[in-house]
Design a protein that fits this description.
heterodimer; A: alpha+beta; Chloramphenicol Acetyltransferase; eight-stranded mixed beta sheet; five-stranded mixed beta sheet; 12 helices; about 30% helix; globular; B: mainly alpha; about 65% helix; binds zinc ion
Chain lengths: ~450, ~240
């Protein structure tokens, strides 16, 4: 809810997800993610900066800095010059510093043909940031002299932002009943040896959308369901190889974009997570059974009523009078502690599928592919994310651990399924074949 | 284009080895492309560590002003008693506890704890100089207790430092350490006051600690009990 004032010193209350991500903020950890577009030719940094300067006024909710209040942190309009596009580096998604880089919570990079956008999760979720990114790419292509229409979700940068784009959609759709799920069981952690600060090992796989879609269809599942099942299978196998006394369930956090259930144009956070899981202690599941479990779990649990009840509970908690009067420094500690038991322990990892990056044919001609990186987790484990553009589906594993077991087995599984996989990574490969970690 | 012989995935032309399994690329038909740019930048950059200088300066200023104010007040209020020495000493002790860790990063934990213990020792010494009875009780009573307490804290710090221990063993060790401290405390008090050791209250404390530890060790050793405890306490 921006305060309309002449001097543009608007401020935004953090939304429900924003409260969590700021509470988790530490010197060595920030909840961040990155989108990249690989263009048809090398990036022109000057044109990109011009495009950015034209685009940012249209998206005031990204033009913010974090302020620490006594009871809550909040986002404040940032009137510093910038943000400026920078040359990319090998270790993406570094933690944000509230007091440095003029307090910017978003970053822009270029490398060869790749344009990248990094966003602090308290500012916006993936779907919201993609609106900004799509518009930026359109304006950039116009700077290069191409004719790009304002279609397929490209916002007109010459018009002021719509109030609905800046709304806290959780607060708008809050219901009457809240649902508090019981405590979930501790899952297999799937953690590894942490790398020294700051390293984010990123491995990207590129597959054909048509091929994966066909394969998923043969199991009667969507692409998201199929890839979730592959990841669960991979982690189940990994746990099995470690031969523990008692196998723990393998569960994934699957973020759900609530915009498809509750129409909203917001470019701020509006997500919840689902938790499909397989418990190997009950007996062995075949791969088609895992796909079926994931498919039915998501269909059964992800519905309007249930989702609304869950986020109503979360928002109520946030507006609780007693909770509100706790000073923010203690509140953040508390939220971070609760997150450890409700957001980390019950999960083996995260998989988010942003789906198809929709662009007009005029833009598609200049974008070779899209890429996504989920930044580090609070523990050394890999996060998996995917996004597609055209026929190229990008699946990225990123984490601060040195082992590469999860991604290796995941991509080998796809290869065994008959899917062609191309792999790129920022891992430093020793030409002599030596590796820092023992691998199979 | 080359494929990893191990994983079956297509690799980037510039890759020397498979990023998944580190198997080197050896393709006689197509040597590794060393001219094209690699898929990711090779330039490393790191965000600077968060500066805690402002907090350190603020803390120092607060402690210093408290010390100076009390020192000045002491000149007027009961100047025959040097009561401000206690406040100033406490301020110095708190400063040593809080400020160096803010300014110097990566002080090893033992060094930090050692510094803290020395600060406590200095403070108690300062008090002993100003209290009737002189420094005798400092050397005879306070110093041994501080050193024992310090040694136990140091031990706990080293043992529990990496957080690798389970919660159960952590609690067991802490309770055991508390028992040990009370045992030595009474030993030193008795030796100072009566020149002979007659264990009384510390025996009660040690017994209670032992009684608490034994079930914990049993739970820790028996897998089914341990599993049950994990379930009950969500560990
Ligand atoms: Zn390989």
């Amino acid at each position: 809810m921006p305060r309309q004032r002449e001097d543009h010193k608007d401020w935004y209350k953090l939304d429900n997800a924003g409260v969590l991500y700021t509470a988790l903020q530490k010197e060595e950890y920030s909840a961040l993610y990155r989108f990249s577009a690989v263009m048809d030719r090398p990036v022109d940094p000057a044109a990109l900066q011009r495009a950015l300067d034209k685009t940012m006024p249209r998206f005031p909710s990204f033009r913010v800095r974090m302020r620490r209040g006594y009871f809550w942190n909040y986002l404040e309009f940032n009137d510093a010059p910038g943000p400026f596009v920078k040359e990319d580096m090998s270790n993406p998604c570094q933690p944000v510093r509230y007091r440095e880089d003029s307090g910017w919570l978003i970053r822009f990079f270029y490398y060869e043909r790749r344009i990248s956008l990094e966003v602090f999760h308290a500012v916006s979720d993936g779907a919201g940031s993609l609106v900004l990114f799509r518009t930026l790419l359109a304006v950039y292509l116009r700077e290069l002299g191409h004719e790009i229409p304002n279609t397929c979700g490209v916002r007109d940068v010459d018009t002021p932002p719509e109030p609905e784009e800046l709304e806290d959609a959780y607060a708008r759709y809050i219901g009457k009943t809240s649902l508090h799920g019981g405590r979930e069981r501790t899952a297999y952690p799937n953690t590894g040896t942490p790398e020294p600060f700051y390293t984010l090992n990123t491995t990207m796989g590129f597959v054909s959308v048509a091929q994966v879609k066909e394969k998923a269809k043969s199991y009667g599942a969507s692409v998201t369901e199929y890839l979730t099942a592959v990841l669960i299978q991979t982690i189940l196998d990994k746990q099995h190889r470690e031969n523990p006394r008692r196998e723990k369930p393998v569960a994934l956090a699957i973020p759900i974009d609530l915009r498809s259930f509750f129409p909203s144009e917001t470019v701020r956070n509006f997500i919840l997570t689902a938790r499909p899981s397989i418990d190997p202690a009950l007996g062995e599941y075949s791969f088609p059974e895992i796909v079926a479990q994931v498919h039915h779990y998501l269909r059964l649990n992800v519905n309007r009523q249930r989702l609304r009840a869950v986020f109503t509970g979360n928002v109520r908690y946030q507006s609780n009078k007693l909770f509100t009067i706790i000073p923010s420094i203690f509140k953040n500690r508390g939220v971070s502690f609760v997150y450890k038991s409700t957001g980390v322990r019950p999960y083996s990892g995260t998989y988010t599928n942003l789906g198809v990056f929709q662009v007009s044919p005029e833009m598609a001609a200049h974008i070779e592919r899209m890429e996504i990186i989920l930044g580090q987790a609070t523990v050394p484990r890999v996060h998996c994310a995917s996004i597609s553009c055209g026929d190229i589906l990008n699946i990225t594993f990123a984490g601060t651990l040195c082992e590469s077991d999860t991604e290796r087995e995941f991509f080998r599984f796809l290869v065994r399924e008959g899917i062609h996989v191309r792999v790129e990574s920022n891992r430093r490969c020793d030409p002599k074949g030596g590796s820092p970690c023992p691998t199979a | 284009m080359s494929y990893c012989v191990n994983c079956g995935v297509e690799l980037d032309g510039t890759a020397h080895a498979c990023p998944l399994c580190q198997t080197p690329v050896m393709n006689p038909r197509q040597p590794v492309d060393t001219f094209s740019p690699p898929p990711f930048p090779t330039r490393r950059k790191e965000v600077p560590p968060v500066s805690k200088r402002i907090l350190a300066v603020l803390l120092s200023a607060m402690l210093a002003s408290a010390a100076v104010c009390c020192g000045v007040l002491n000149l007027v209020l009961k100047p025959e008693l040097h009561w401000s020495v206690f406040v100033i000493g406490a301020a110095i002790m708190v400063w040593i506890w809080l400020v160096p860790p803010l300014l110097l990063r990566g002080i090893p934990l033992p060094v930090r704890l050692l510094l803290d213990i020395v600060a406590v020792g200095l403070y108690v010494y300062l008090i002993s100089r100003d209290v009737r009875g002189g420094t005798g009780w400092f050397l005879g009573l306070a110093l041994p207790i501080i050193l024992t307490g310090g040694a136990v804290v140091l031990f706990l710090g080293l043992v529990l430092q990496n957080g690798k221990r389970s919660i159960l063993s952590g609690i067991t060790i802490v309770i055991g350490a508390a028992g040990a401290v009370s045992f030595f405390a009474e030993l030193f008090v008795d030796r100072w006051l009566y020149q002979c050791w007659t264990p009384e209250w510390s025996l009660i404390v040690v017994t209670i600690c032992a009684a608490l530890i034994v079930p914990l060790i049993i739970v820790r050793r028996v897998p089914s009990l341990r599993e049950e405890a994990r379930r009950r306490f969500h560990m």
